[in-house]
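Weekly puzzle thread! Below is a chain. First person to post its structure in token form gets bragging rights.
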Amino acid sequence: MSNISMKMKNLVEISSLVAESTNFFEIKDKIIEKMLEVVFPRKACVNLFYNNDYEHAYLVCSNSLEYIKQTFKSKDAKGVKFDFYEDYPEYIHDAVEYKKIIYIKNVFEDERAIKERDLANHEHYTGRIVFPLIYNKKVVGFMTCFLDESDVLKDEDIDFVSSIASLIALSIEITEKNSEKNFIIDKLRNSLELISEATRKLYQNKNIDEFLVHLSEIAKKITNSRDSVILIDKNNCKNKIFRSYCKLDERDTNVEDTIKLLLSKNVPGLYVNDTNLEREITLNVDTYIFYKLSNESESIGVILCTDGKKYEDDDLNILSILSKQVTVAMQLYDYSEQNVKHKLIAKELNILNKQQKLIMNDSKIKCNYEKELEFYHRPATVVGGDFYYAHKIDDKRVAFIIADVMGHGIVANYMVAMIKGAFKTLCYQYKTPGEIATHLNKILYDEFDKMGVFATALINVFDTERNILSVSNAGHYSPIIIDDNGELVESLNCKKGIPIGVLPDGEYHSNTFSIENYPMVFMFTDGTLEIKNQYKEEFGLDRLKNFVKSNYKNNKNKIVENLKKETEKFTGNDNFDDDILILMLKNI
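Winning reply:
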């Protein structure tokens, strides 16, 4: 692979790291490592300013260094504190003040670097280049790269490192906002509890008006607005308005006119933080945010919140989730009222309840006197996309799913809950995993498409009476199967279908076989395979197969213990970038 291709590849990987993480401190070393793989400087460090304090700089990233890393060790997560004007040379002051890149080719010849010559001797560098980290026109820190006499730094290398500096600045910005996002997630979780309670009352009391009043109040709270209204324009609810507070009561006509205008827009939702500049609506409000309620391609209403202090993209994202939950709850209510064939979904597919119950099953399920299901999950982040769920359909069948939603954070959280709720319901409606997977995709495709994610999965139904396992593979890794002789069973490789959420009409098939003579069926997500050592080599499928062959007779605790040892030996550490999830259908 050419150097240009490598740069592009690593730039994409760094961009993905930044996009998927909400904590710069968790990915900072990985970013620098990826950058230094493809440019001549083999050493770099990052310093940050906190709370607009330019008197002090904090060294937060120095893993690629030697003397500096050993000499300046921090016990504080903020990094090693330095006096910026006393401890750093003049040219770094200039780079920060004038927001420009400064390249000192030889610190022993340039008078601006006289202060760091002792350090250069200890760290063994000759040249140094500084990149200010800037976002919102403000310098939040700086990255410096160290060069020895043999290093050649071309213009394209400087451009590349500059682009990485921009991504680092973005990651710092995301991190600073993370506390706000955590607050938003907490608000969403609290709201989901309220939604769940409102939905429960809807099924008990059959009062759609009361339900929507509750939802209107939740919309107000979740966006920190002074008022909110929900208008439903569908069937017997046509043009009904439900509000949490009465600030807009005197302008009902304007409210309806405004909502009709919003429904006519070609966007699903938006927010305006200064109505003096964007005077489209006739209501006397300072700010507003709205999101349409949609059933498939039909707009059936809108949620409108007004007079929040300042709306942001996060508010719009959360309101979009709330709007979907309103729509789903109303659909389930309609199903219940009409007593159609999907009445079971209206009863069981309580997505709203599932949102705050993201804890997996107990770690062991005894299937029969021979076989048991056990799993181990080590999340890399608080909210990830790997999950496992099992459910006893009856005395003779256990259904279970292992899946990986491509994404992290609140979107993965949300989609995991949706899949779990739908999976449990469909287990009762359909007998084969292929049918379950097909209808799971059909039910959830629109939501996957809107969120821009998909999921790989192994969906399974185990006949505990006959020891027959049926598997439907939705773009996932096939199980590792061991026979009584301790050999890999290669002939039962499960045929792959496409991941869930990729095509609206995807069809999935079942692979059925007896596991009477197979003491281990081992399933997993890609986190284990993608663990890398210092040479960027992945742990890989072959190593995992050999591990399973060597450990299939052990109990779960011993298998997990040995897997930890094996991966830590391979990497030299116990910090991994992705979730690790394994599932074992094994002999007792």
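Puzzle host: Confirmed. Bonus trivia for everyone else. The longest helix spans residues 155-205.
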